[in-house]
């Protein structure tokens, strides 16, 4: 690695770089320089020590990558492709750092931006964009992962306040967050009463008395009854934080509820934003692993010649470069569709399924080129592969995205 910013990769067999605008390349290069300067020199220690580097959070805010695809309230308002390129470069450094940016921007900030009130947006979005506050997104539960409709966390109205009880699991950043977006089931009766109270009128009769729907709440993590415990030890995403969260009689004001989009459509819209970032981020991890293998193969001498001179090694390098190039094309296509307002949910599933699956295979193959040295933290491929075990699982497993695509192709719902 040189001190100069690398503008293209040897894995770019099809000159995808040439299809980027000058603004997109400038943004990509600026984030790449940040990753080279602030992530790469330290990531082996952070990973080994299971340390999330909180000190870089304000720097990421200054870099403009927190909620960068959102408009207003101090958010950068960049394009989908620019956001994707930023995710790609950050994950080339480490999935844990890209995951922080996704949780903060694609999940927490998107939830507030899409579903929050003007007051909620004004209170939280500028601080989150600057990295002055950290957020977490509480959807997954110990017994409700791929099936969030089975969540058991509930919120009820009591004396003009919401009382939330339940448990969440695998909640990124919860132990260091300032605010949590908590998704809970709410009865239509309570939701109608809350809406009426905030509007200053009488409660409307719910369409279906006794029905429950999922709603989001903004819960400051200092609220009594909120407890977050990091999940340890982990073999993956060690430079990130994932937690168990307990909500025991957590009381928040009536206006803590996100007023828009009741139902699972609320969190699902945020998950699609995070899945989009993974489409790009996984390409970054794969590209970094390929480049590590290519560089090592050119320097490592066995049987009197560089390892790269052997046919079997060249086959591995070619196959990896082809897969990274295809993944890059897929990410760019999805990004252009998103910017054009033509992106559909099944397309995000196609990108997430393909690129996460591709990336983990590239990283595993790259490790074989490094031989035994590849199992150390001196080299990135196995660290990336370990992280990608989580990336491949969260925001929808391979199985979930396969069934989404199967439903699109056949018109038949096969989840149940």
From TrEMBL:
Its EC number is 1.3.8.6. Pathway: Amino-acid metabolism; lysine degradation; Amino-acid metabolism; tryptophan metabolism. Pfam families: Acyl-CoA_dh_1, Acyl-CoA_dh_M, Acyl-CoA_dh_N. The keyword Amino-acid biosynthesis does not apply. Keywords: FAD, Flavoprotein, Oxidoreductase, Transit peptide. InterPro entries: Acyl-CoA_DH_CS, Acyl-CoA_Oxase/DH_mid-dom, Acyl-CoA_Oxase/DH_mid-dom_sf, AcylCo_DH-like_C, AcylCo_DH/oxidase_C, AcylCoA_DH/ox_N, AcylCoA_DH/ox_N_sf, AcylCoA_DH/oxidase_NM_dom_sf. Residues 90-165 form the Cyclic nucleotide-binding domain. SUPFAM superfamilies: Acyl-CoA dehydrogenase C-terminal domain-like, Acyl-CoA dehydrogenase NM domain-like. It catalyses: glutaryl-CoA + oxidized [electron-transfer flavoprotein] + 2 H(+) = (2E)-butenoyl-CoA + reduced [electron-transfer flavoprotein] + CO2. The keyword Zinc-finger does not apply. Its cofactor is FAD. Belongs to the acyl-CoA dehydrogenase family. This is glutaryl-CoA dehydrogenase (ETF). The lineage of its organism: Bacteria, Bacillati, Actinomycetota, Actinomycetes, Micrococcales.
